[in-house]
Helix-turn-helix transcriptional regulator
Amino acid sequence: MRTSELGRFLKSRRDRVRPCDVGLAKGARRRVPGLRREEVAVLANIGTSWYTWLEQGREVHPSESVLESIAEALLLDPEERAHLFLLGGYPDRVTNPGNSAVGEQLRTLLDEVLPLPAMVTDPRYTIRAFNPVERYLVTDLAEVVPADRNCVIQAFENPEWASIFQPLSEHKRILVAKLRAAYAETLEDPEWGPLLERLGRFEEFRSLWDSGNVGRTPGRTKTIENPYVGTLNLKMTTLIAQENQRLTLSVYQPVDKVTRSRLETLHGWIEDGSIEKRREAVVAERAVARAAEYADVVAAEAGAERAVHLRVV
């Protein structure tokens, strides 16, 4: 049934493409508006008999590269490509039908769920879009360059981000396990290489990654120490975007009334603009704390050097 459906699908797409769409002359004796089988074969750089067998629903097994060439020849859009690969026996390509661009419908939905924090992520847990409460949930995401808006990168590289998820070790363990599961689903994505190379600089990440643990851990309560409203107890619900299955919409839901009230307060401060002054105060407070911590380190090092000097004398 799958091969028969593949044949019907290919024929329907071939009939839709006009010769002028792919740079071919219409010709005087053309009986149909679409392409001929031999024309598709030439455009895809495959044998005419091979392509004919595919349309006839025979038990042949095209490679990914052959299907990619046919998709290009038939001018398939991302959703049609995903369908082609599913029928061709490559279901893993269905989760990667196109790019990670966030459509207007998803962006609108992010604001519809306010005051709940929500974000859209790709398979590598890079944040592609977020609503105002999500922006201030952990760190100011607007100040993070897009290339660094990745949940795993932030957990290992950003002290501010790392200090807010508690317990941090458990947060990292689950996050890496989720990343490993996503990796297996989209192995062919070329963006995995640079990400894993960057994260591989951290011994803790390498240890967690090499453990082989995978999982999605639905329903777990996350404790987030928000710098503006205090402790938030949240559960995350994640939905796959049907229009682009590379993307997922994640919404944090409060597990108690106190958390909901604090989210509403945070949203109110964002709406009236007072969050900016509060952000400045938080940044200044952290700068003072870092300066004090640095002074303690310098004093400790100086004391150690003096002790060594006295022993030598």
